[in-house]
Write a structure and sequence with these properties.
heterodimer, A: 416 residues, alpha/beta, FAD/NAD(P)-binding domain, Enolase-like, domain 1, 3 domains, six-stranded antiparallel β-sheet, five-stranded parallel β-sheet, 24% helix, globular, B: 66 residues, alpha+beta, Alpha-Beta Plaits, two-stranded antiparallel ribbon, 21% helix, binds flavin-adenine dinucleotide, binds iron/sulfur cluster, Phthalate 3,4-dioxygenase ferredoxin reductase subunit (chain A)
């Protein structure tokens, strides 16, 4: 059967999910128009460096562009940037922009990502979040005036900000409301290991440290008041307590929303035809578990961009999204890479593997002999093996054998 | 087409290997290794996806005579 490719494809969102979708459509030979709408009025840029290289100044906006060397036209994309989409009309097949202009589509890809959560903050820019280029620029400017820096939340972005602050020679403290920092994502054992990494790098890591309020002082600095009465002076407060999917503009559109745009396994939105969603905004059906999942990682956005480009152009050969969840984080010179999905009741075992590049540690998470997840410290080769094993549904014994094959020696080490 | 790599830029994120293990691998230091630099017409979609999946643009496709 001949594929019926839609004529005009509209992409909403100019970050990695949106831009890679447009580029993948072109690479796959789509000849119709690809229009990309974006709220921000800047050249599309990549986000992972915002809490790392951009904060320390080793990369600038020019280094983190998502477009190819030929820019928008070289990539074959028609930009409509600096204007947010405010409404989706799936019946009239239009997206309405903030200035009222309607944009017609044959198919639309929603890639509006997520927005950071924050805490009640005083007037001014003492309390920051980091999601956009301008956020990173503002934090960098504040950092140039000196520390101390208080990071609220022990998620990855906060941890990276603390690492960047230390790299700049600033005092940094991470405050986490839960008793065990880093445990929410990594579990308590690996969390303790990462806490130690930060402590060794001079970061003060406080658990059971809920923020009561932030006070701003006349000189532009402030004080973070903890619920237990402790007071932490802060020249800058960076909040990293998670994100909320960018679905506000889709309320009332008829799409099924539920902390994200609900989609089927092919990333097609439920509730309206010819609407797709990718990246941090998409809550897609995971056929392995039968549950809807939202993954806020870079690679997930790119893989879904490729998938949706394929599915748009080949409606008779739809591919489901089945990749292993994967992300990396760079903290204090250590590459932390995680594959899979951690369950609260997983067992964790640590393996120390001897390689030609030194000893490397891998934490394996398992349940009933099944392989749920791995956290790999500074050994990218092992990550490739973990991703393949996870996608093939291999068990703990099989992934352990794969890792042993990559190392000259493998020994279990105490957890934590 | 030919795959080119700037190994100094590679950060070992491994996305290229995950998508296109025929052309890419990682060494023990976590640096990309090109197993096979030339990309035939039929492999272009896969290798192109691998290139776009590199978070630091350490790999790219160039014309054969480039
Ligand atoms: C500081 C930071 C560091 C990170 N580091 C890592 C890392 O090391 N490893 C990793 O795996 N992941 C990392 N991530 C996560 C990764 O960057 C995200 O998963 C990825 O950016 C998701 O891409 P996206 O395109 O789905 O959404 P987003 O990047 O959130 O982009 C959404 C886009 O949509 C636009 N938009 C939103 N609403 C509208 C609207 N109504 N109309 C028009 N445009 C709109 C926004 O302006 C933005 O351009 C990091 C994220 C941040 C913020
Ligand atoms: S995707 Fe890029 S950074 Fe990652 S291993 Fe391949 S070349 Fe290196």
């Amino acid at each position: 059967m001949r594929d019926r490719a839609p004529g005009r494809i509209l992409v909403v969102g100019t970050s990695v999910g949106g831009i890679r979708t447009g580029q993948a459509l072109r690479a796959a030979g789509h000849t119709g128009e690809v229009v990309v709408v974006g709220a921000e009025d800047v050249t599309p840029y990549d986000k992972p460096p915002l809490s790392k290289q951009v904060l320390v100044g080793s990369q600038t906006a020019a280094d983190i562009s998502l477009l190819g060397p030929g820019g928008w036209s070289g990539d074959g994309l028609t930009p409509m940037t600096g204007r947010a989409a405010v409404r989706l009309d799936p019946v009239g097949k239009q997206v309405i922009l903030a200035d009222g202009e309607p944009v017609d589509y044959d198919a639309v890809v929603l890639a509006t990502g997520a927005f950071p959560r924050s805490i009640p903050a005083p007037e001014g820019d003492l309390v920051c979040t980091v999601r956009e280029l301008r956020d990173a620029a503002a934090i960098r400017e504040r950092f140039s005036r000196g520390g101390p820096v208080v990071v609220v939340g022990s998620g990855f972005i906060g941890a990276e900000v603390a690492s960047s602050a230390r790299q700049l020679g600033l005092d940094a403290t991470i405050v986490e409301a839960l008793p065990e920092p880093f445990a929410r994502v990594l579990g308590p054992d690996v969390g303790a290991r990462i806490s130690r990494l930060h402590a060794d790098a001079g970061v003060t890591v406080l658990g059971s440290a809920a923020v009561a309020r932030v006070e701003s002082l006349a000189d532009g600095t402030g004080v973070v008041h903890l619920a237990d009465g402790r007071r932490l002076p802060a020249a800058t407060v960076v909040v990293g307590i998670g994100v909320v999917p960018g679905t506000g503009w889709l309320e009332g559109s008829g799409l099924d929303l539920g902390f994200g745009v609900l989609t089927d396994e092919f990333c097609r939105a439920s509730g309206a035809p010819d609407v797709y969603a990718v990246g941090d905004v998409a809550r897609w059906l995971d056929v392995r578990s039968g549950e809807h999942r939202l993954v806020e990682h870079w690679t997930n956005a790119v893989e879904q961009a490729n998938l949706v480009a394929h599915n748009l152009l080949h409606p008779d050969d739809l591919r489901p999204y089945v990749k292993a969840p994967y992300f990396w984080s760079d903290q204090h010179g250590l590459k932390i890479q995680m594959v899979g999905r951690i369950h609260p009741d997983d067992r964790v075992s640590f393996l120390r593997c001897t390689t030609t590049a030194g000893d490397k540690d891998v934490a394996l998470y398992s349940r009933d002999g099944g392989f749920s997840a791995a956290v790999v410290l500074g050994w990218p080769r092992a990550v490739v093996a973990c991703r393949q094993a996870w996608e093939r549904g291999e068990d703990l014994a099989q992934i352990t054998a794969r890792l042993s094959a990559l190392a000259t020696a493998t020994v279990p080490v105490p957890v934590g | 087409m030919q795959i080119k790599a700037d190994v100094g830029k590679c950060q070992g994120y491994g996305n290229c290997v995950d998508l296109d293990p025929e052309h890419f691998d990682l060494d023990d230091d976590g640096v990309v290794v090109l197993l096979q630099p030339s990309v035939g017409e039929a492999e272009l979609e896969t290798s192109g996806a691998a290139v776009r999946s590199c978070p630091v643009q350490a790999i790219w496709l160039a014309d054969d005579d480039a």
